[in-house]
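Figure 2 data, in text form.
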Amino acid sequence: MNFQTEIETLIRARYPILYIISSEEMRVQNLVVEIAAKRQKKVYEWTYSNGVVPAGSSIQSKNIRNTSTKDPLMALDQVIEQVEPAIFLFKDFHPFLTRNNHAIIRKLKDIALHLKNSYKTIILISPVMEIPAELDKEITVINFPQPTIEDLGAMLDRIIQEVRNHKNIPIDLDGDGRQRLLQAALGLTLGEAENVFAKIIVQEQRLSGDHVNEVFAEKQQIIRKSGLLEYYAAEEDFSNVGGLGLLKSWLHKRAVAFTDEARAFGLPPPKGILLLGVQGCGKSLCAKAVSRLWQLPLLRFDMGRMFGSLVGSSEENVRRAIAVAESVAPAVLWVDEIDKAFVGSQSSGVTDGGTTARVFGTFLTWLSEKKTPVFVVTTANDVSQLPPELLRKGRLDEIFYVDLPSEDERKDIFRIHLAKRGRDPEQFDLPSLVAASSEFSGAEIEEAIISALYDAFYEKQDLNTGHVLASLAQTVPLAKTMSEKISALRKWAVGRARNASAENIALLNPA
């Protein structure tokens, strides 16, 4: 049953009060007007600024304003006095449903009993839900769905037609370009999508499938307003990630999983992955690169922001953050160092009154039940701190173990970081650098090159192999200072996680 059919069924069944949660008043109103025309009913709308007026009346028309019905009680009286079949849309009525508005709450409850024996329906439209306990049994809550790709496509076609009729602006949208643009716009309201398409046309004097970043910038505004998630611009790609061939292959195969063709083929969108392994080996870098590979916005879920001082506020913050992520889906949600975020969840009842356990439970439930295409990338360093519930299949698609880079991978990493700093890798003795960097992580190799650059700059020389070798010799890698923990982590990963790198499989499966 689609949304319009559901609303029409509830109206025909004489449900007295429907509460539609949406910030898209005009989309809801247009749908209700269409249903009312089919059922031969009139439609009225109420706002605090105009009172009760016929739906669709111009805000500039003074003749239709009904000043007396600006008062909510008078507006509800108008509902009772209406004799003919009608639907009343009350916009942003939620402030009048708070605890102190006893008269309005009681009036609405009385009207609900009256409406059950009439052909009239009240529909409350609001972006937030506010339902007093007295009206729990009288109100039916419905979440208005986000625009589908078909809705966005119809709106885009209208914009393109208007542009072609009035302006000489090139529209370069083939099938793939159109799909990319619409896919990027999923999660926006029709108004937001229309604004961003118009902005692209005005700024660029053209419209093509290459303008997905401008669409992501509009989503960034939504994320910024929430204050709970961080938006990361997709600047890193997998060309900056050395090694990890199996992980890259796994992600490349799922790059097309968000398309309509994938849905038609029966593929569900991928749920997420856990990247477990040694610090500094590229786990966070991979999370950023996924966003660039899939051309999806990257959101960072900072668990520290979720915990509030008021009882219940932490769980509510998590729910709000999840709702924001879903509202801009498809997207990549990055939860960095999840082992530290939920450390102590097992003993949470003693240490913090159960707050961490409840927050963790909210997050786990969402991982299991989510239907929206939000791909979750979680990273962890210490497997002993991971709650076992997180590792269960069904919440995440796969667990990858990211080990220290092999010799070939270290050579790639040296090439990447030398080239990033304007040096030709072929001018360096890469085999010597690889041999001197045994058991170094990618982050440690990068820091060694940076340290060598400082030395070369101080000596007023260009960077050479000797500078880098000297810097490597002065560094004690984490793999040596924490060798016991890394050995234990490797032992745990055998049979429990896939290795992210083909070259390192032998480390997990020794002969």
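Caption note: The domain at 407-475 is CATH 1.10.8.60 (Helicase, Ruva Protein; domain 3).
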